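Ticket #4471: structure export looks truncated?
Reporter: QA, pipeline team
Priority: medium

Steps to reproduce: submit the single chain below to the structure queue and open the exported record.
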Amino acid sequence: PGITFIELFAWLAEIQNYRLNQVTDKNYQQFFKLIGLSPRPTIPARMDIAFTLEKGDDQGPLIPAGTKIVPAGKEDFVFETSADFFLTRTALESVKSYQNGRIVDHTEANKTGNIYYTPFNEDSPEGSFLLLKFKSWFKEPEFNLSFYLFEDDLPSAGAPGDEGANVTRSALLTWEYQDQGKWQPIDIKEDATEQLTRSGKIIFRTPAQPQAGKFLLRGRLEGRYEIPPRLVSIETNVVSASQIETVINEDLKEGLGIPWQQVRLKKAPLLTGNHPGASTELKVGDVLEWKAFIARITADERDPVVNDIWSKLDSETRDSVERLASEKPPNDRGAEDREWTNIIAGLNRLLESNDLKESGEKATAQCRGEASRDATRKENRAWLQRAFPGLLAGDELVIQTGKYPDWETWKAVETFDESGPKDKHYLLDAKEGVVTFGNGLNGRVPQKSEDIRARSYRYSKGAQGNLPAGQTWSIQYQPASLLRGHNKRGGRGGQDAETIEEAIGRAENFLQEKFRAITDQDYSTLALQTPGLRVARAEVIAGYHPDFPNLKIPGNVTVVVVPHRRPIDPSEPRPEAPPQPGKGFIQTVKRHLDSHRLVATQVHVSGPKYVKVSVKCTVHLNKRASSQVVTQNISQALTNFLDPIHGGADGQRGWPLGRDIFPSEIYQLIDKQEGVDYVIGVSLNGQKVDTKLELPPTGLPYSGEHKIMTVPSGETDMRAEEEPGQPEYECPGGQDAGGPGGRDYTQEGCRK
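Actual output as written to the record:
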């Protein structure tokens, strides 16, 4: 019997091993769902293309979102504009900044485009400003300025997770324009730079033309930057495009009336609505047929859903719709562009609302944070797509069957498990571009009398779209078809769809990610990963409340954060102040930790209490050692050792939070320096020799001015025999009673 059981268990084990080797990609897809992971889809490359318009007095053309832009000689790489964009004939004339009581001209550096300049620095007080002068004023309804920052010496900011990036900036820029000698506020439609903390565009709504002859725009600083921006260039007429091609009305096979019919799209891989960078905002270029769109929304007998939309539009948007629907619509191209822009702006305001209804039920998403706002917009955008079938382009494939002009729209599903015989469902293989219909029992079958078409879909070449700089571009849009553009920078961000093997490797790291803050390490890791911020250090003190530092209070956690800083160039003056988080920085970290903490835990976030440390000592030198060189080396070593970010014994993790500084560490550090024989009399911050310097619980040191007295080899300096840090005394008659040689400095009449 024993041998029989051994053979049985061996046989069962072999079956299990065999089945493990037969796991298919479909099985892995289901495994990924169990842990909340999905293989990353194709990500389109992004490109910034600069165009130049001829001088003139008329308004620049509107380039709608989705306009095709192609590079010369590489016409199969189609790019589409990412947003509605007004080109302008206005040119930037000068760039200046006002800081610390003086005007600095950056115009030439801005024109060069390959060196950076600093409009604000660590010491810039509130009221400093960036001043832009233009040759004329803007005639378009809105204008864009592209800001390119130098960030090569900085780590990437924390990536937003499912909760999105909800960042409060410590520094704010108030933008104003000059009119009749006075500064007036200007309305900002969008600030992708987030107060000049990253590269991006700022879109301004154009005010009335200033009456004065100078056309000035300024950004006035309020607050303080943790990392002051370094600008490479400020440019106009830079169009952002993605390597995406939208295909409209692609005819596929006719229905065959058979189960599991498959049709293949002409272009693949397809983009899906969950790819990074997918936008929920509606754009002018997303409307496939403006006449049909206007006709549907203004019809006398409107669909109940469309009627609900019409009732919620504001009066300004409705006026624009009615002007386009009138018997005499605007003939002027610029006027038509403005009407389109007004309608899209009104619909986007509606997308932000929770008042849109479907089947009498309100949308459920609530606007809390950027991620929830995105969820609301995504839900409302999908609802809008259903209200205007076949009239709005999106990232999702739209499959239709029927005969012109009567078409029925089908819905993509992941499986046919819950599909009935009449459900118009299909499966999509986005990588191969294959559409699979049901079998008549699970999912309806396209009939022989029906044509099949792809109303719209988008595809991308992924990593191939990262084209190098220096391409010449043309716009495939009639009002701007003669314009030519150039990209100063190469494409970025394009990635091919993730393979199953790559997803398996990512899953291992995914399982190690922190989603709940329980241990000290959890809090530290999550604070370092705060979306939108660059956090250099995050130290955790459990049971510590900042208002009661001498008590240990259960349920309280204090996280001390230090912002990142740029590497310090030895040739430049060292910043006087150590990196300190601003109010907005602290609020952002706390908000992020609050979304991950346990419900009964109170989280406190603060910056460190910095203690300036000055070392005084006497160093005896070796033969032929240079006093100046040794002093410089010791000062630099002390500065590095006491650094709050990279200091400490290992020189990497920074000085331990709240740990005292011992003179023995200073002795050891100085003894290691080349040219040093020995060191005596180490005093920290003027304390008695060989006395440790105590730091508060949230304290970190930073280097001050050090007093290094050197004694050449073979010589005896009387000062060296004194104890640095020994109190000096004055005695009656001006005689010094303190010092070596056994003199009595405690005699009556002597004082410090």
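Status: closed, not a bug. The export was complete when the record was re-opened. Leaving a note from the reviewer for reference: The chain has five domains: 1-35, 88-236, 245-363+371-463, 514-607, 610-711.
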